[in-house]
Amino acid sequence: MAKGLRGQQPSTNTSPTRRLSSLSKGKKKGEELDYSAPPGHSPIHATRSASRRLDRGRRPPLRRRVGKMIGVGKAKQYANVLDKPLSRGRQEVSLSAFAFLFSELVQYNQTQVDNIAELERRLEDAGYAVGARVLELLCHREKGNRRETRLLGILSFIHSTVWKVLFGKVADSLEKGTEHEDEYMISEKELLVNRFISVPKDMGAFNCGAFVAGIVRGVLENAGFPAVVTAHFVPIEGQQRPRTTILIKFAEEVLQREARFG
């Protein structure tokens, strides 16, 4: 009877069915395993093959061993978007991707309303949610969680910081109304949301700038400056396309508070 690889080599007259001493860990000495050598294999080859099979039971799976060697045994952990630091540098998106997404937003809302005023209101509401989040992000990133308390300060913040983050540049102009003390205007010759929009004649003076007006209102109201914000087209002499003006009309309480500040 064979005693394994280290034992005495069995004779060639022995039956191909061998009684091999178990080499696996945890087996008692003398415990045996039946093994039939395949045709064409000598008993010594059968002994070695059986030893490899028994030894394989003590080794980790090949996939685990390869993973340890090349460093892929454990899946790489990617940070959740909420785990990323807010102070990270500027992030940009594809202009064509934004234009397509915004076009779908306009077309979807167009199927949900019966008139132009309602369509602009829905776009303004969508922009309001964006403005609220932009204010929170920029106050944390740019100002150390401090917010503007003066009227001109918040307008300058929108005209420069907010506009640059959203559109890659500061707004073309920031003006105060000449007829009313509570009115201010932010103007843009070619507002991004109107750049790729062709308004049909039957929709009159529909202005996609209502979305940006909503962003401005979201920033103002969440900063403590309630206001009515609307978007208007203003013709420019010598040019085919009009400019877009965001008209801001502050609530009376804002002007009274500003007067107390002096």
Automatic annotation (TrEMBL):
The keyword Endoplasmic reticulum applies. InterPro entries: NO_sig/Golgi_transp_ligand-bd (IPR024096), TRAPP-I_su5 (IPR016696), TRAPP_component (IPR007194). Keywords: Endoplasmic reticulum, ER-Golgi transport, Golgi apparatus, Transport. Residues 8-19 have a biased composition (Polar residues). Residues 1-66 are annotated as: Disordered. It is found in: Endoplasmic reticulum; Golgi apparatus. GO terms for biological process: endoplasmic reticulum to Golgi vesicle-mediated transport. One of its GO terms (cellular component) is endoplasmic reticulum. Its main location: endoplasmic reticulum. It holds the Pfam family TRAPP. The keyword Endoplasmic reticulum applies. It comes from the Eukaryota. Belongs to the TRAPP small subunits family. BET3 subfamily. This is Trafficking protein particle complex subunit. The lineage of its organism: Eukaryota, Viridiplantae, Streptophyta, Embryophyta, Tracheophyta.
